[in-house]
Design goal:
Structural class: mainly alpha
Largest sheet: none
Helix content: over 70%
Strand content: under 5%
CATH class: Mainly Alpha
Number of domains: 1
Order of helices and strands: HHHHHHHHHHHH
Shape: globular
Length: 281
């Protein structure tokens, strides 16, 4: 039995999205920086645990191990508390659909959060992944070489697809990520939230879908590690397409769907509760 039913989750999600949009810009940036770093920690441990596993022997199991490890990122975001663009793409527009904030508030919040996420991801990629030699280069040995080779495989996978394929992989990714965020609202315990997060996030990574913030780590790390034929033009191209797909996956398939199912014709309980004492006074 969940602590909240879907209709209650929808109310909480809309209120959460509105609160995120109402915070001061500097707090949003700091919170977003942390989320970018947290997702990058998940990406880095995912590379580490899946490196050295030859696909000719292990088949697709390395992507399963990678997906399981990557869930650390969203667990840190939701349990420790921070602003991740892909989650906000669902929560903040839902607040606007509920009439709590404006479209301009949505655009401002998502812009600030994407900027903060990017800085956090770049800091971890450069200082904690490449400069530490946790991810090595082509001349490394031992575990550093294994992580480098794994990163080569990941970076090539992120940059070899057509624009349409990358966009659709972004849609699939954030449909699942936002379902993880959505389902975490059903639980009030830490264990319940982690369980809700684990399977959708593991699934999107295992299937090779594109998460714009994770790619803010993977592709720059590949560039700084010296992976051949990967440049900043590839990064910008991927971020634009994956980010657009992430936005569609969040807004169309999660925010709009659940707004229509549970909020469209329902009164705003928070607004009603606030209004009743004023009327009695």
């Amino acid at each position: 039995m969940t602590a909240r039913e879907p209709a209650e989750m929808a109310q909480v999600a809309a209120e959460t999205g509105a609160k995120k949009a109402h915070r001061a810009w500097d707090r949003v940036l700091v919170s977003a920086f942390l989320a970018g770093a947290y997702i990058s920690f998940g990406a880095l441990v995912a590379i580490t645990v899946s490196s050295g596993l030859d696909p000719s022997t292990w088949g697709t199991l390395p992507t399963l191990f990678m997906g399981a490890a990557f869930t650390l990122g969203l667990v840190l975001v939701l349990i420790a508390g921070s602003d991740l663009a892909t989650g906000n793409m669902m929560l903040v527009p839902l607040g606007a659909m509920r009439g709590k904030i404006s479209g301009a508030d949505v655009a401002k919040n998502l812009t600030l959060v994407l900027l903060g996420n990017l800085v956090g991801a770049l800091v971890v990629a450069f200082f904690l992944a490449v400069q530490t030699k946790v991810i090595g280069d082509a001349d490394s040995e031992g575990s550093a070489l294994l992580t480098y080779e794994r990163l080569v495989t990941i970076a090539e996978g992120k940059t070899e697809h057509t624009a349409w394929e990358t966009f659709l992989r972004g849609v699939g990714c954030n449909w699942l990520v936002c379902l993880a965020v959505w389902m975490s609202l059903a639980a009030t315990s830490v264990a319940g939230k982690i369980l809700a997060i684990f399977f959708p996030v593991m699934a999107f990574v295992a299937m090779g879908f594109d998460h714009v913030v994770a790619n803010m780590f993977f592709i720059p790390a590949a560039i700084w590690a010296g992976v051949p034929d990967v440049g900043w033009d590839d990064a910008l191209y991927n971020w634009l397409l994956a980010g657009s797909g992430n936005l569609v996956g969040a807004v169309v398939f999660v925010s709009t769907s659940y707004w229509y199912l549970f909020l469209k014709d329902q009164p705003d309980k928070a607004a009603t509760a606030a209004k009743e004492p004023a009327e009695r006074a």
